[in-house]
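Summary for the lay section of the report: proteins are chains of building blocks that fold into shapes. Here we show the chain for Lysosomal dipeptide transporter MFSD1 and then a coded description of the shape we predicted for it.
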Amino acid sequence: MNATARPGVMLGLGVAIAAYLLSFFHRVAPAAISGDLQATFAIGGAQLGTLAATYFYVYTVMQIPTGVLADTLGPRRILWWGGLVAGVGAILFGLAPSFELAFVGRTLVGLGVSVTFIAMLKLLALGFDERRFATLTGLCMLIGNLGSILAGAPLAWATQAAGWRQVFVVVGLLSFGLAFASRAWVIETPAGKVDRTAWLTGLVSVLKNRATWPGFFANTGLSGAFFAFAGLWAVPYLTQMHGMTRATASSHVSIYFLGFAFGSALWGRVSDALGKRKAVALAVSGLHVLGWGVWLWATWRAAGALPLAATYALCIVMGLASAGFTLSWASAKEVNPPQLSGMATSVVNVGVFLGPAILQPAVGWLMERTWDGRMEAGVRIYSATDWRNGLLLLTVAAVAGWFATLLVRETGCRNVWKAREEK
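The coded shape description reads as follows.
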């Protein structure tokens, strides 16, 4: 299809984007309610990190199966079932009387929303011109990232006004609504489907392709550092190390993801315009790595807190730069057969969630090693040394991700697998 798809495709894509928006909300929400979760369930940093990362555990495991399902069953069916499961999980999380049930609820949320992004990419791959894939992916992410912005300052406000439990019950009901909308409006996408009896052969083909893997490792480091911080530890870090209120700290998370949203749209467009994937990703991801040096330096700074203008500026710049890893999906699609686009993008997308799944609890565990036992209102208070240990781990992960980007194959924004086959 060309860039202007027929109305039915656009309507279904709109539903997929809305489901993706909710998935981003769930991904980031623990940052704004971290104190509430610690106080409600009487848990420490390591348990808090595990609860938040449960979403990423399930998302990680589900990415390759989701790619297979997107290429065989199609986006319509997986969005329907995903919405139902996510709705049940969000309501259970909101009503959970214990840490264990909250863990189960968060797990179901991760399982349900794990299909949204790949379903959206599959609709883009089948319904639009491949030369605009990165641009359109970025625009969809720009809209979807509103969910992460809502999980910042707006969630902090709603939590104070109505309570965090009520917010998640409402979000669960919205998931049910999107499930029914996907069943009604997302069209079947038979064109380009893989033979359901041959999906394993296709998956093996993607996994054996060496050009698939650099994007996976880049995502593990770069996205891992980004989501581990912005999705959980940013708010407690900013309140404890920089003396901010929870509302001000949460607004930084919103700014962080606002930058990420616009960066997702911007770098895809720049990449498509320049006809380059790797060069753009290297440049902007390098800026992201430098930002970690600033946060780390602040833990050694004798004067303590950075000026408010500086922290806001750093969040917007790092948000923009963090979006460099989003070019990995276009790169993965372009080094594999077009009919395997769902599997190809899902393999590199595993890294996006494996990184935070490892790093969120690991940061908490490291800080617990040197924690001096201080608590306020049921929330653990960490020292500059504790935060330095946690941020150093995130910095190392980001640097490793940047080095992996050096190994990504430059595709020139076209399917080089097709080009090789034609030769």
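Put simply, here is one thing we learned. The chain has one domain: 7-422.
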